[in-house]
């Protein structure tokens, strides 16, 4: 019985290494071709929304969609089969996304509008970060994430203060400009204030009265200058993170860490540093 | 008499700890439910300006508005009652804002247009910073404020120079483009220059002549590049502030301060640092 | 004769200290009231371009304009009179600006269109920097100027590369979109590219073809990301400048300079630093 | 035979120093006049696309174009002639660009539409960097390039994450707003998202529904704040590069490198530094 189970578990193990792993050539090849399939299936959904493409290639796209759905269904079943704990995979974020990315095509047979939810497939692309791990891109991404974590409180305070200002400015603009100039309600006025303070400036709603234009000019100058605050916060944190991760060489003589990157000698005791970086 | 006064003052004291304090669970609970009431009452005023909502739920909103006003009136009276110095509370910024946030509903009985001033209630939200204090958000906010103070002179010089440039460019554009292209007056031309130099770009007024377009292009490039100046100033100051507040550990051997955050040993004398950070 | 000349030269000297100097109360008072006059006279010219204001207060503005011109004429004559070297004053930048700021009103008697050149008065406002000197604002401005000088070469290379990219993109967009979509000529296409790459986005000219929109999207993303380059350059230089100007205390024991701002002890030899900053 | 070849090779060598070299006065003069010719010939092509200019000066421009083509043809032949390895020059980037910049005028004789490809001449302007080398601009450019290289991985991760967000937001906006509000297809929706997230904001497509405007406001705030990330990355790297390149003076006593710019004494051993910077 042990011999009977061994081959099965060895097949499972082999599949698992290919499907879930990224450290074998087959695993990497599987991940990359999966990425290509996902990108292509999402591109198909996108192109199908263009009227001229839909008219011409609509039937072909439906067939290809079924093809991709078929591939993804098999992949999902294989993942369930070879996973060490199928249930915990099915409940995990990626497990749910994998299931949701095949369902829409089947559901669209019964509910025609369901095909748009196929866009959920794009979420599967986040798996690419696992492939990127191979390419050592992940540590750089982690550095950014750490810097963002470090600055999250300051950025939260910044955004909280900005939203209070936005709300007050919106109420003022609603009273000053009124519905005749497009400020039909305070929520719409908030939309305008955000369009203005972020310097997007669609121009679908613009102030018409001199006082409104003066307040608008003030809003713009405010938005133009406060962008410096989150930038300053993040820059300072990224600088710190880069400085922290760069040179952790420890002087073998005096134990000092944190020399400059191009240092040849310890800047305290003058003994030569090993270039193991 | 002292015994008669004690219970009363103990009630006052208890109320004061709940209403003004934030260090007891009851005080925190009171502050947070007050925040929720303020946000909801402001949201009501905002939604009431949407025509379709006003038609459908207008009556209900009026009733709820009165409910919130009733709550805030009682709160104001309680604050006056339990405050150690009622008069100095009534004259303080928050005291005036608290009064102004209940008056509009009563005034609207006699003057229909007064209800918009209810927006002043939003100013009460700044109280949230006191609640945030509990969550240690305030020190981060103070760091930002200190950095802004430090850079205020440089930023003032920057804005003063920019406004001189804006005025000169506006006068030139008024002469070049003239009223036919929407530059009906120099103040309007100043509005256009600010829209352009802050890279908002509504497009409600755009240059029509080749020379005007060339000057506009110059204005855009100017605005696009000078944003670097306030950003640079603030980033440098925030970096300094972060560096200053981070590692103030003093080496117990040589008394040096200002080591790097991850330093294990003093970078001057090599003795181990205490990790009390 | 010497006695006759002495009182005259003492009057000259007194006047010179008031008009050219900023270190006496009278000199400061003179400079500040001059600033107020200049700002008001420029504001008048600006408001006069607003049609409704011109109709109502046009006559009054003409009278006030003459009043200001009269004041500035007397001031110009006094400057010529009390200057140590009248000719070198008359030829200096401020001398020419002072003359040009009074001429337009007189010229407008003969040539009606000349009144707009009155805007040149605004240039006199740059004198305000002399007043600011009193308030120690100038050293901060100098720090910014030094940082800009330091980074000018890098910024020049940046702008040179960007303009090459702008020119190539403009030519491509002209070919792709053509005159039907508003890209009537390559110079106009360059205007569009600058509007887009600086993220101003008027919307007076927008791409209509899918390929044009793709190139436009690329242009936007380019402009959105390369703003980081001048910002990075300037921030780095400002950081350096701030660091350089801050702590120039020299350790009296080992002569090291450039300690951290909050350093109590020299970070090389450990001897106490004087806090003369 | 050696004597016969020597004069020829001396002519070749002389020409090569003028045409390819930049270290003789003649070489510099040649490069600068070539730059002027290139700029003027490109300007001609640009101005020729303006309808009014084409009508008036069209014939003159054709003649001048032939003149410039003639000059560039001779230059190309001379380069081929005097180059040490003519074939490797012809195959190099500049060799191909030089050829492509003269072909269009000749091709336009047979294929009228080919004249636009003349814009390729602008690529020759990149040669200016060689001239800039003389002015020591290149090392500054290299510093920028190195900083960009250093940050390329982080910036790639940033752009990859942003594009995933853009795609998801585009799909959502297409479903929310639909073709009636201008979101005719998902590719067009992607165009809108990029216009919005980069804060360009043309206003050719704007959300009409309240939900769409809320998502648009979120997109703007996102774009407004994430610009801080590439800026922070690049600023940190440029700071590092500037710090690294600035002071590489080595203390002659203890061999330490990396002193501050204004250091007079080595901050480790206190011996005086040579000011050879």
From TrEMBL, chains A, B, C, D:
Gene3D superfamilies: 1.10.287.70, Voltage-gated potassium channels. Chain C. It is found in: Membrane. GO terms for molecular function: voltage-gated potassium channel activity. It comes from the Bacteria. The keyword Ion transport applies. It holds the Pfam family Ion_trans. Residues 28-241 form the Ion transport domain. The chain crosses the membrane at residues 32-51, 63-81, 101-123, 155-176, 214-236. It is a multi-pass membrane protein. Keywords: Ion channel, Ion transport, Membrane, Potassium, Potassium channel, Potassium transport, Transmembrane, Transmembrane helix, Transport, Voltage-gated channel. GO terms for cellular component: voltage-gated potassium channel complex. GO terms for biological process: action potential. PANTHER family: POTASSIUM VOLTAGE-GATED CHANNEL PROTEIN SHAB (PTHR11537:SF254), VOLTAGE-GATED POTASSIUM CHANNEL (PTHR11537). This is Ion transport protein.
